[in-house]
Design a protein that fits this description.
It comes from Celerinatantimonas yamalensis. This protein has 400 residues and is α+β, with helices and mostly antiparallel strands. The chain has 18 helices and 14 strands. The chain has 2 domains: 190 residues, 3-Layer(aba) Sandwich (D-Maltodextrin-Binding Protein, domain 2); 195 residues, D-Maltodextrin-Binding Protein, domain 2, CATH 3.40.190. The longest helix is centred in the C-terminal third of the chain and has 16 residues.
């Protein structure tokens, strides 16, 4: 018996996995998923570690020097694949992904883990920003439907303000932070803009410039809450939930919280649609998703991949769909996934397929900081949009 136990122990593979502590899935949820995986795969043991999002990037990078004693499976943000690929932190798993699998998962979800035409993991936590609206306020303003274009959003905000229903109908998370870049990317998506062309920055032209001009216009005409320039997503949620905004751009999580009467004054009046584009029929979205990848140092990638494919499987994602919407197209037609969040699921079906990735570069942290500062100069009336973004083009061209 002792010999049998010894043989079992030696045959068992141990995986070290790193997650963030405030993911769409809670620590207890990830532990439950992992326990179920281990029951189905008794030859694999998974050691879990959780850190705050702010520490996740540096933990992954620092572990590269730990060799075989580092992490095997890591959760990473959509903005990191370029850096992680360049510096050899993640394994290229392109060959493990069957062509038939690609069509079953939203195209926008794949952009989470794709860089340089290669795949560096599997998409897992799927998220984008939606346009939330107050149904009661729109009805009082005589507005028959939520906006279908950016111009219509602007016009409806004007109507609501002119009728004295709200001082500032629009609220955003435009603090000098990554939240600002996410809102900005959504608007660039709305104007069909691009960040780079032939390797050159395009922030001072086309849709990238129009996005900044739209932001500034809503502030100049007192349609956007001026405090948006200091707000993060939680501030936006609180303003909207208190009834002080008719429209808000925010992540999936706000839907259930704004509809909770214990923490919202607008529960039951919350509508949600994809962010409209510049033209009728078009929509806008930013990729705020996260993926699971295998580190370059891992000594047992087959076991790692088995764990990743289990966590990202359709069955597991559907089981936990109230926490994070699945990456699988077919899931959105199931009653169990739609229950209690039909409106959100209908919006997600469209938005997830249209998600635009933030600028892809191994120098992303520096690029993001440059963009944050440049956009804030415009929003604070210190520089014109063209002047500030032309300067951003110059600075970013040195990084890219």
């Amino acid at each position: 018996m002792a010999l049998s136990l010894s043989s079992y122990a030696s045959a068992q593979t141990t995986i070290n996995a790193l997650f963030m502590s405030q993911a769409a899935y809670s620590q207890s949820d990830i532990k439950s998923m992992t326990q179920d995986f281990q029951k189905a795969n008794p030859d694999i043991k998974v050691n879990l570690e959780f850190v705050p999002y702010e520490a996740l990037h540096d933990k992954i990078v620092a572990a590269k020097g730990a060799g075989a004693n580092g992490y095997d499976v890591v959760l990473y943000d959509v903005i990191w694949p370029a850096e992680f690929a360049k510096f050899g932190i993640l394994k290229n798993v392109t060959q493990q992904i069957a062509p038939s699998l690609k069509d079953k998962i939203f195209k926008g979800a794949w952009t989470t883990v794709k860089y340089a035409d290669k795949y560096w993991g599997m998409p897992w936590i799927l998220d984008t920003k939606y346009l939330f609206y107050n149904k009661k306020i729109l009805k009082e303003a005589g507005i028959q439907h939520p906006p279908r274009t950016l111009d219509e959003l602007y016009t409806q905000a004007q109507i609501i303000k002119q009728k004295g229903l709200l001082k500032y109908p629009l609220v955003w998370s435009w603090s000098q932070s990554e939240a600002l870049i996410c809102d900005y990317t959504t608007l660039v998506s709305a104007y069909n803009g691009q960040f780079f062309k032939d390797g050159k920055p395009q922030f001072a032209k086309g849709g990238a410039l129009k996005a900044i001009q739209f932001m500034k216009k809503t502030l100049d005409n007192k349609l956007s809450n001026p405090n948006s320039r200091e707000y993060l997503e939680e501030d936006v949620r609180k303003v909207f939930s208190s009834g002080d905004a008719a429209f808000a751009l925010n992540w999936t999580y706000m839907y259930n919280m704004a509809n909770d009467p214990k923490q919202s004054q607008v529960a039951g009046q919350v509508g949600v649609v994809p962010m409209p584009g510049a033209k009728p029929g078009e929509i806008a979205a930013v990729n705020g998703s996260m993926g699971l990848g295998i580190t370059q140092n891992s000594q047992h990638p087959k076991a790692d991949w088995k764990y990743i494919t289990y966590l990202t499987s359709q069955a597991v994602q559907e089981k936990y769909a109230k926490l994070s919407l699945p990456i699988w197209k077919a899931s959105y037609n199931k009653a169990s996934v739609q229950a209690g969040q039909t409106e959100l699921v209908q919006a997600a079906k469209k938005s997830i397929g249209a998600m635009l990735a933030r600028p892809q570069t191994a120098q992303y942290p520096r690029l993001s900081n440059t963009l944050q500062q440049s956009i804030q100069l415009v929003l604070q009336n210190k520089q014109s949009a063209h002047e500030s973004m032309s300067r951003a083009d110059q600075l970013i061209s040195r990084l890219h």
